[in-house]
């Protein structure tokens, strides 16, 4: 028995907010879990502090599955991003503890390495097609085997995925939501020329990805997929909102472009129909927002029956603890596809020293016992929580739309 004697939440903002759960056992073993939900951070912090932590004290940290079920079934109010991120944080911290007690990196507890490393994709973005291609070239020069392309849309002031001039891209950018404009027509006209140019300049040896960020209707997504087919994208992400899973049938009827979805999924139920009807090719559920390693492994196991591979979300709003967990998962899971990599700032890396590393377009979680991530609490304490929201989007006539 490794009795849980204390647990607390650490909130820090080294450039952006992160919520971390720290669990300690009677033997002094410490486990960390990420609980960051971008733009809604304090809701998860309260859920943990006020409702989860009191139930953890005295429990055996080794009983990961039982604690997962206790928190999921025991809440009565199942699912949703706040609940599932909280459970995800507990789950990560418990796997971290188990690994440290065993003296093994978590991927060894998950069955060992199924591959030498996890292929990652980087973000190439720019205000224009030329800028995006330049960023893509820089990625290829750094060894990336896969690059996501996002370019500004002519006529629209701000576009998802594109940084403000001279800044790194970080979507939660203001203390109240900023408003951006959206025009499907302008966007649709801009994507094909981007891919055309990319293939012309970069050739065919690099995987090219694109994120629609939930902006199209199913039939529009079908048309975009068809138009992009000649350029052989690795995937088209979040082509349409996935609350209505059956909507993806329409996209499938019109295009063979591989489809990825799932960064906002919280449980296997969000993906069940998509997987069982083989409506997607990559499932992007992330360790933090979908109930931790325990649950994301379950999603991957269902997906594997249908030859659907993983492609975990890896934006900078997921802390280094989630990145580590995703890499232990990705290294071990049989149906790994790709991992998103949006590198954290140096300051974030200093707050969260970690064992994972990048080399030649691949990442490895490292071989430290547990997840291999620590938190420098002294440094973390210097950066206080700062309210930050994701933007919202409106159509040109003022109608509220999907950001
Ligand atoms: C991605 C995502 C992110 C999200 C962000 C929201 O593909 O990486 O779409 O950019 O918008 O994580 O917090
Ligand atoms: Mg995305």
Count of DSSP-assigned helices: 13
Question: What oligomeric assembly is this protein in?
Answer: single chain
Distance between the termini: 47 Å
Q: Give the total of domains.
A: 2
CA radius of gyration: 20 Å
In percent terms, what proportion of residues is strand?
15-25%
Please bin the fraction of helical residues: 25-40%
Strand/helix succession: EEEHHHHEHEEHEHEHEHEHEHEHEEHEE
Number of extended strands: 16
Briefly, what CATH class of the largest domain? Alpha Beta
CATH architectural name of the largest domain: Alpha-Beta Barrel
CATH topology of the largest domain: TIM Barrel
In a few lines, what is going on in this structure?
The protein is of the alpha/beta class and 403 residues long.
Provide keyphrases for this structure.
17% strand; TIM Barrel; 10-stranded mixed sheet; Enolase-like, domain 1; 403 residues; alpha/beta; 3-stranded antiparallel sheet
């Amino acid at each position: 028995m490794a009795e849980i004697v204390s647990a607390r939440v650490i909130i820090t903002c080294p450039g952006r907010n992160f919520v971390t759960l720290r669990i300690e056992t009677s033997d002094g073993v410490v486990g960390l879990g990420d609980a960051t939900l971008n733009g809604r951070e304090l809701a998860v912090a309260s859920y943990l502090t006020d409702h989860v932590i009191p139930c953890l004290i005295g429990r055996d940290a080794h009983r990961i599955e039982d604690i997962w079920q206790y928190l999921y079934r025991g809440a009565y109010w199942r699912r949703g991003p706040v609940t599932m991120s909280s459970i995800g944080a507990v789950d990560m911290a418990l796997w971290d503890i188990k690994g440290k007690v065993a003296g093994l990196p978590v991927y060894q507890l998950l069955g060992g390495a199924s591959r030498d490393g996890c292929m990652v994709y980087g973000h190439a973005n720019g205000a224009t097609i030329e800028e995006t291609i330049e960023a893509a070239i820089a990625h290829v020069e750094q060894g990336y085997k896969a690059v996501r392309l996002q370019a500004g849309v002519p006529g629209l002031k701000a576009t998802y995925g594109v940084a403000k001039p001279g800044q790194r891209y970080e979507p939660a950018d203001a203390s109240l939501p900023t408003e951006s404009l959206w025009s499907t027509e302008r966007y649709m006209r801009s994507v094909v020329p981007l891919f055309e140019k990319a293939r012309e300049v970069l050739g065919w040896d690099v995987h090219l990805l694109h994120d629609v960020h939930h902006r199209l209707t199913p039939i529009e997504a079908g048309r975009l997929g068809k138009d992009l087919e000649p350029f052989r994208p690795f995937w088209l992400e979040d082509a349409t909102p996935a609350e209505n899973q059956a909507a993806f049938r329409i996209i499938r009827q019109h295009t063979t472009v591989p489809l990825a979805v799932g960064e906002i999924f919280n449980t296997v139920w969000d993906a069940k129909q998509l997987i069982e009807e083989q409506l997607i090719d990559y499932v992007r559920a992330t360790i933090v927002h979908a109930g931790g390693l325990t649950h994301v492994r379950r999603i991957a196991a269902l997906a594997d029956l249908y030859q659907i591979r993983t492609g975990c979300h890896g934006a900078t709003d997921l802390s280094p603890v989630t990145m580590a967990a995703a890499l232990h998962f990705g290294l071990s899971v049989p149906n790994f596809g790709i991992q998103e990599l949006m590198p954290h700032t140096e300051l974030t890396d200093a707050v969260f020293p970690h064992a994972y590393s990048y080399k030649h377009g691949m990442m490895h979680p490292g071989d430290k016992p547990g997840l291999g991530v620590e938190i420098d609490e002294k440094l973390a304490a210097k950066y206080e929580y700062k309210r930050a929201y994701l933007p919202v989007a409106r159509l040109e006539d003022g109608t509220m739309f999907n950001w």
